[in-house]
Every structure is written in C-alpha cells, then in structure tokens.
Amino acid sequence: MDDPTGAYTDLVAALESLGDDHLTTAATWDRYDGRKRKIFDAVLREADGQIAQDVRVAALEADRAGLKLRFVSSTLARVSPAYYRDQAVGTSRPPKSADLERMLSIAYDIRSGRSHVLEDLGDEVWVFSDGAETVFEPRFRHILTLSGVWRLVRHVTRGFVAQAPKTQPEPWDYRDTLPGIVQGRLASQYWVSRAEGFDAGTAQPWLCGAAEAFIARYSGQTDDGIDLTAVVEKIERLVPGMADGPPKTAMVGLLSNRGFPAWTADEWADAASARRAARAAGKEAPVPAAADVLVQFEAADRLEAAGRHDDAVVHAANAVEECPGHEDLLDWEQRLLAGEHDPSFDVHKFLFGTPARTADATGEDTGAADEREAKPDQDG
User: Fold this and answer.
1) Domain ranges in the chain?
2) 210-249 as b/e, with b when 16 or more CB fall inside 10 Å?
3) Could you tell me the pTM of the whole model?
4) Over the stretch 96-125, which tens digit does the pLDDT of each residue have?
5) Which residues are registered as beta bridge partners of 359?
6) What gap in Å lies between CA 197 and CA 188, rounded to an integer?
C-alpha cells in the first residue's frame, strides 16, 4: 500500500519475464496500433499495391519483435479456459476474454510509464476497488486492478510451471554456492604464459593480455616474469594452417615487434574513427586501454600537423575520454585547444609512468626512467 504503482509494475514485469518469442504472433493490419497505421497509410497512399503490402507486412513483423507485443501475446497464449470459468467463480468483475488483450496492453503502458517517466497509477486502480479485478479509469476505460493483475500472474505462472518440460536432476557443484567466493579476472601476468588456454578463439584477448603484462612489467607495477615460450611454440604450430583473419593477425602480432606504420594523416584518422565506431558498438578487438588512447592521440597529432585543427580536436577528445582524468592527457588537450601543437607528448611516461631515457652528448643516460636492469631470464 506504500507504493501501489511499484507493486503493479513488479507484477507486470513478472509476467513479462515469462515472455516467449515462439508464442508471439504478428497482428493483422486492421488490428495494428491505430496511431502507427495512420502514419504508414498516409505514406503508402500513392504507392504501388504490392509495395504497400510488402511495407505493411514488414511493419507488422518488426512490431512482432517489440517487447510489448511479446508480453501481450505470450501472456494471452498462457491463459487457459479455466481462467474465465471455475477460477473466476467468486471474483468481483473479472476481465472478459474479449477485453484482456487490450487490458494487457494498457498494463504494459502503465509499467513503462512508471519505469521511464515516474508516472503513478490513477487512484481508481487501487483505492475503493474492494477486490474488483477490473475498474473504470477515465483515460483507458476498463483496466486491470492490482487484484486483477495478481490473479492473472498466479494463473499464468502456475500454467507455465505445469507445462514446463520435466528434466532429470543434474549434478550439483556445491563449490558454486560456498559463501565468501567471488569470481574475478586475474591480472594478465598470471595467465598469459599458460599455453593450455591459448588457441584461435582466445588469440585476441591473449594479445591484449600480453601487452598489458609487458606494460605492467616495464612500468614497475609488477616484478613477475613473463615467459611466453610455450605460447610462442603453439603459435608456430598453429599459424601455418590458419586462414587469414583476426585470430591469425593476433597470433602474428604477439610475435612481432613492429613500430608504428608509415601512415598518412588520413589513414590514421580513418583507423582511429573505425576503432571508435567499433568501441561504441561493442565489437572491437580487445587491446589495452593505453593502446586505444594512443591510436586517437596519434591521429590527433598527425591531423594537427597537417593543419586540420578541428579534426584533431575530435580525436584528442576521444583520447582523453579513453583514459578519463589523466592529468598529462588533460594538459595536452588544453594546449591543443589553445592552438599550441605539442608533438613532444611523452608516450613512454604515459605508458610506463617514467620519462623516456635520453642521452647527453657524452652518451650518458640523463633520463629519470626506471633504473631496474631488465634481465632476460626474468623477462622471458
């Protein structure tokens, strides 16, 4: 009673969770949403008959994929004749079968209104309903009350359980339910050397992991050695028989020590834009976060040098937002925005935390880099 709209929303969401695409049927055009139908009909009035028909069929099929139709169709498909017969005996104003489809549609709209714009139920739905399952509501005519949705939820859920396929008991791994256990991903240096998990399917994340491990090693974040001998041996066995593609590229990349490609400003811009688009779509190949920064940084630097300041600023923003709050990147972006082209951004410091080593005229190292001596037996 403290939150009747929240209760109504939860009950509708419970029904929605049992939605099934196989139970969803497309509406006919005469029963299609009138507001949508008017929009299509206005456009198709002058169209060829077959084209108009094809568009209507496509619109109905697209609507079938919608969550609302899935909810309504699945729920109706699970309502048995008993709902209107013996189960309705003794109830107050139970819904009629001809009205239930429309009432379910309204119930879904109420759930959406609460979820998206914090809209509350009208008092008619829960105040003074006295257990009635339907009630008059000025905006929608007759709709399901809390009592009505509650009986419908019980009916549909019981039918779902009764009709569910019976399965044999499965082995139970008690370790999954032990208290105090959480799942997490180990730092890359703890697993990139283990060749048993490496294959074509894991080549891309393995390349990313190896890069992360070496960055951690040379930045002083860890002293763990990285022995990729077994992984390299597996790559040498697998690559000759592999077709060209991302897994093969990743394996070859794991073995290579190539520097930046000799690309033009346009090629860097295209690569950075494509990477950004893939990142936004969630379809990118995994690389360390620093690599995503540097792709955008290099594109911005080349574009600024080519006199394309506005384009450079876009990629500079992408670089900063791939590593939010990094002070060196923020300073670099501000200088770029002010028109000060600074190609001397210390990438070594960004990657490893220390400036790149430099040598004076005598050949002595004058940089402030990490003083550890990297030993082959440690690095692997």
Assistant:
1) 4-162, 188-255, 265-379
2) bbbbbbbbbbeebebebebeebeebbeebeeeeeeeebbe
3) 0.62
4) 999 998 999 889 888 887 766 667 766 656
5) 365
6) 13
